[in-house]
Amino acid sequence: MAPEEDAGTELLLQSFERRFLAARALRSFPWQSLEAKLRDSSDSELLRDILQKTVKHPVCVKHPPSVKYARCFLSELIKKPSEGSVTLSESTAIISHGTTGLVTWDAALYLAEWAIENPAAFTDRCAVLSRSHRVAGRGPAEAGCLPGAPAGS
Predict the structure, then answer these.
(1) Measured in whole angstroms, how far is the alpha carbon of residue 8 from the centre of its chain?
(2) Is the dihedral of CA 82, 145, 5, 72 positive or negative?
(3) Dihedral sign of CA atoms 48, 125, 82, 63 in order
(4) Which end of the chain has the lower number of beta carbons within 10 A, N or C?
(5) How confident is the prediction for the chain on average, in pLDDT?
(6) SS3 assignment, position 129
(7) What residue range is the signal peptide (predicted)?
(8) pTM of the complete model
């Protein structure tokens, strides 16, 4: 990455970090700059870096924002295109009484089957689990990154 690209990426990350930690309105985030950066760059780590600067930031882990704010932020973030991304969406209109047990598991099985057939798609990738409620000892979101590993490991 060229020095000016590095500087631009760092400014973008700082902008996301400051706005998120200050709980600024989501419309104030530089979403268009992020989309342009994702289109023009082969840097697949940008979304992971944004997660580290926002929902996984040490201050945020110790003092998490509201569940609604974190969920809205993550929902907006996962809408952004990323080369080789996989998105699983769910509609509350087709589930019973606001629960997810009637839809998610079939989708998870299809995703797992696809992941087994396409392991390279998950090498050096991050996954975000957005929650509508808190789980004991955890914040409203979890993010995990998968290190590069040989296929079949």
Answers:
(1) 20
(2) positive
(3) negative
(4) C
(5) 73
(6) strand
(7) none
(8) 0.56
Which residues lie below 8 Å from residue 56, measured CB to CB, with a gap of 6+? 143
Contact 82, 45 (CB under 8 A): no
For the cut 90, the answer to whether the pLDDT of residue 17 exceeds it is yes
For residue 128, what are the β-bridge partners? 143
pLDDT in tens, 32-86: 999 888 887 655 688 889 999 999 999 998 999 998 898 889 888 877 765 555 5
Between CA 135 and CA 128 the distance in angstroms is 15
Q: In 1-153, which ranges are continuous DSSP H helix?
A: 3-21, 31-40, 46-53, 58-62, 67-78, 104-117
Tokens (6 digits) for 92: 């509350």
Task: Dig out the tokens for 104 from the structure.
Answer: 């998610």
Q: Pull the structure tokens for residue 39.
A: 């289109």
> Reduced to 3 DSSP states, what percent helix, strand and coil does the chain have, rounded to the nearest 5?
50, 10, 40
The whole-angstrom separation of Cα 43 and Cα 94 is: 36
- pLDDT, tens digit, 9 for 90 and up, residues 47-62: 889 999 999 999 998 9
Separation CA 109–CA 40 (nearest Å): 33
Euclidean distance between CA atoms 130 and 99, whole angstroms: 15
